[in-house]
Amino acid sequence: MKKSNWLAALGLAMLATTAVQAQENNEIWHYYAAGSELAGMNALIDAANSATDQYEFSGVVIPGNVVELRRQLQTAFLGGRPPALYQSSMAFELKTFADGGQLHPLTDVWAAIDGDKIFPEGVQRVVKVEGVPFGVPFDLSLINNVFYNKEAFEKAGIEVPTDWASFTAACDALRTAGYEPLGNAGGTFWSLYNFYAALVSVLGEDGYYKMASGELGFDSPEFSEALDLYRDSMVSCYAKNWSGKTWTQTADDLVNGNTGMFMMGIWAAGYMEGAGFKAGEGFDMFQAPGTVGKSIFQMDVLAVPEGPGVAAADEFIKAATTPEGQAAFATLKGSLAPNINVDPAVYGYAGATFTRQFSEASANNAVLPNLFFLLPTDLGTEFGVQIERFAIDPSDAVKSEMISTLEGFRQEALAENAFIKW
Amino acid sequence: MAQPKSRLTRTDWTHIAFLALPAILFVTFYIYPVISSISLSLHDWDGFSPRMRFIGITNYTVLAGQPRFLHAVFNNILWVVFMLIVPTGIGLLLAAILDRGIRGEKAFRIIFFLPFTIPAVAVAAIWRWMYEPDNGLVTTVMNLLGLGSFAQNWLGDPSVVNFSLMGAVAWWTTGFAFLVFFAGLRNIPTECVEAARIEGATPWQVFWKVSFPLLWPSTIIVLGMAAIDAMRLFDVVWSMTKGGPAYSSEVLATQMYDLAFGRFDMGRASAVAVYLFIIAGIIIMPYIVYMSRRVQDSEAE
């Protein structure tokens, strides 16, 4: 045989070997690429590998965020080679993929792990589409906490705010003492998450869900009132140049003592502790005015595409939803375990505080999922963009334009019957 | 008497075989995707569902009436103007300076070209850090120079963000223009320059009357690439601002990506792609046709 033929045969053999290996390797696609997030995900995968001899799992990082993961997934679906599981957002994200016939219903494994008992009701409602579970929670973060620099509060002589009046008074005192009162960061999410506090203050829990289901319009007086409250109480407190910063840069400002407060998801606590700024010592946290006793949360779930990896995925889910598996992820990543059977003692000061808040909110039936993911995807994304725009320029003209734009999106979604009741 | 039927020879078949491969690749990876995108732009599809809904030219008419889309078109045109003038001009200037044989020429060559070797995402990460509005390198240096009052909210102010991005892209891409111009200058026959000097031309006259006209092939390459880069701009903008804040730095490619994967609207994203294709053709094709004629004329001369 000629030399070139030998080389070709060798190449084909190598390709065939690679294909077989890829099929046997059950991949979990996620976008936790570094730091505590990656450590948490690796711990979760290790827990699953320890729990089963039948399957071998490996994580594949898709750099970026949920948008980049969607792009990669679409290619995989078209090619007929999806991963065994992937990291997904909740609610409408799951609905879109389920409606597209790409997701495997998790009814059997949900029953096997007793999902209706181990996850709070507020969590369950955003992983089920028409009563069928399509995602299993593994990563829950509260987004209604305001972190504050304790030294800044002491120097400014202020107590922890409990309502909007004391919050704006705290802003004034911090500014007088030489601090930027309230940090924020540029991007589609962060201003929106801040705005939820004002929205819940005005609408309450029922109104919040009415907005999610499209029953309450963006042109309603209540929404306008929420915008005014947000403008007067939070936007007026924002640090200068906030829109040009990432959330980590703003967290650094809090650590360095340039900024007094920063409303961000609880992952910020993990970031600051990683920078040596300890919870309970350097910084502390309180629930934003209007959300005391309530929890607004963001959550990631495991979704299972239809395909040959379903049996392996079931085994992974069984291991990942045990108290040990959930704690392994949450303690490293700095989030909360959605499983209520996880011992609160596994958390540090910050985690224990967030757990208390979440338990209290669950008892009050005041657990609110992130509105961004309850709305149809197009409307949710536009909502984030428009609130950021309003936060940068809170003029009446921009307010009027944003109301008109969002209401247009809502009417379009209503016409397409896109809203659902979560 | 009938002519004997012409039969393909073995050599002809060899030629056909060699031509078939690139032809098939071209059809599969260029013609088919273009046609497929045009077809997709006439549908409503989320990218996952098994069904697509035909909606005619609705995606095109909706986009044409959206301020967001028109703003992205404007930004792309702004980028074309910028790319044709700034990185090209600075590259030419640096090449002209270095061509005069200054000390440390080799080191400067590497320094000028080095940024172009860095991947776009890394460039974005570097400049995202440099543009931190309070403590970033740009603001800090301006403060040290007493220019702190001119410091901006570089990536957070909708009226400034495009210029900030252009600064990063100028740093990144000038090296390419520099290298092409520098190679062009070094290929100019020395006797032409010498003759001009003997005739008493000043260095300025030598450059504009002799060197620059002879740089025409290099200029064609640099300007053509700059225009194409401006129209397909995506990676640096997406990595640094994702088109924000509030769409202010959005270009057509980032809008297309957001619609396709951020909002599950493949049909409308495809319509943006077709618009981009047409706009790029309108802007770039006349230049390519004109330049091709100039090259043909030059060769004829």
UniProtKB/TrEMBL annotation, chain A:
InterPro entries in the record: Bact_solute-bd_prot1, SBP
Keyword rRNA-binding included in the entry's annotation: no
Signal peptide (residue range): 1-22
Gene3D superfamilies, per the entry: Periplasmic binding protein-like II
Stored Pfam families: SBP_bac_1
Keyword vocabulary terms for this entry: Periplasm, Signal, Sugar transport, Transport
Domain of life assignment: Bacteria
Transmembrane segments annotated in the record for this chain: none
Cellular compartments annotated: Periplasm
Record-stated family: Belongs to the bacterial solute-binding protein 1 family.
Function: Part of a binding-protein-dependent transport system for a sugar.
Name listed for the protein in its UniProt record: Probable sugar-binding periplasmic protein
Source organism of the structure: Devosia yakushimensis
From TrEMBL, chain B:
UniProt-recorded name of the protein: ABC transporter permease
Bilayer topology: Multi-pass membrane protein
Sequence ranges assigned to domain ABC transmembrane type-1 in this UniProt record: 73-287
Family: Belongs to the binding-protein-dependent transport system permease family.
Transmembrane segments: 12-32, 77-98, 110-130, 163-185, 206-228, 269-290
Pfam families, per the entry: BPD_transp_1
Protein location: Cell membrane
Keywords: Cell membrane, Membrane, Transmembrane, Transmembrane helix, Transport
PROSITE patterns assigned to the protein according to its UniProt record, in alphabetical order: ABC_TM1
Family annotation (CDD domains): TM_PBP2
Annotated InterPro entries: ABC_transporter_permease (IPR051393), MetI-like (IPR000515), MetI-like_sf (IPR035906)
Signal peptide: none
SUPFAM superfamilies cross-referenced by the UniProt entry: MetI-like
Organism annotation: Devosia yakushimensis
